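Field guide to reading this record: the first block holds the primary sequence, the second block holds the structure written as discrete tokens, and the final block holds curator observations. Each block starts with its own label. This record concerns Signal recognition particle receptor FtsY, catalogued under organism Salarchaeum japonicum.

BLOCK 1 — SEQUENCE
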Amino acid sequence: MFDGLKEKLGRFKSDAEESVEEAAEEADAEQADAEADAESAVAESESADVAESEPESDAVAEAETETADAEPAEPSEDESEPDEEDESSSAGLASRAKSFARGRVVIDEDDLEEPLRELELALLSGDVEMSVVDEILEAIRDDLVGEERKFTESTGSIVEDALEDALLSVISVGQFDFLERIAESEKPVVVIFTGVNGVGKTTSIAKLSEYLADHGFSSVLANGDTYRAGANEQIREHARNLDRKLIAHEQGGDPAAVIYDAVEYAEANDVDVVLGDTAGRLHTSDDLMSQLEKIERVVDPDMTVFVDEAVAGQDAVNRAREFDNAAEIDGTILTKADADSQGGAAISVSHVTGKPILFLGTGQGYDDLERFDPEALVADLVED
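BLOCK 2 — STRUCTURE
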């Protein structure tokens, strides 16, 4: 899962480590040369002092007297003041070299310029949203540039820590424990699912029903997708396979009425959670969005979950933003995560919506639903 993204992040770590180490070694060499030049200058000065201490001839003394009486000469261009930029550069190199000699390394922004540029292109090509890429790069710069860190075997761990922190800052947004919220909420808890057609919304509902059962919570399924031909048959098959109660009306019925009936069933039968499917819709489809608004008015769901495919990349990110703007969502399920090598949606969705990814669909089975764990995901992405 997300192997392509992991490879790109690994390449950045390697490039950044190599660049920083090369710069530190160059500074060390520059400092060594400077020290050698200084020693040579001291030796020459001592030799000159010895020569001056010898008795002077009358001619030499007379020449020195004449020179002292003469007007001071203007300095030539060759004797002008040293360039401030050169002095600053030399001082910087000297400082870095001293740190290097003490077993520490100072990371300069120039060291990271090329690796960060390559990382930016890699993330954008992997469908990570542009604003997310910018935030990741800025976080890495803030964490690394100008810092003096321990230099043991390599700078790899330094870069890895910065990369991990940067990724967590964009992925771990608004995270909450889904099961904990279910446990603490008044029953029945009503969860509505929305998204476009064909992204695995109905299958995700079935998987979540099984996930809840595995953790001791009962659920009833409600088919609010009353307009799509075959929708009743699809969700009914899942309900039969899982031995769950399904509330459904005839095709063309009122979606809000279906889910309302499911809530009443749950109240009468002490069912913990109502899982309500809705018609696949686009944010630009006024009729379908009106239906979703009616469901919210009539049922007042506790959570609205957006479902899309991880492999949809930037399209999934854009749809998540649009759905959240049209009808506020509480979290996201990304399906087909096992088939996604780029990870663009997984990296970006939380950041652009301000709402967490709750689960990843990782296969065809009812058990193939994983709780989204930002720290575990990032650790897997950045560690060798």
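BLOCK 3 — OBSERVATIONS
Residues 138 and 174 are 21 Å apart (CA to CA).
The chain is about 60% helix and 10% strand.
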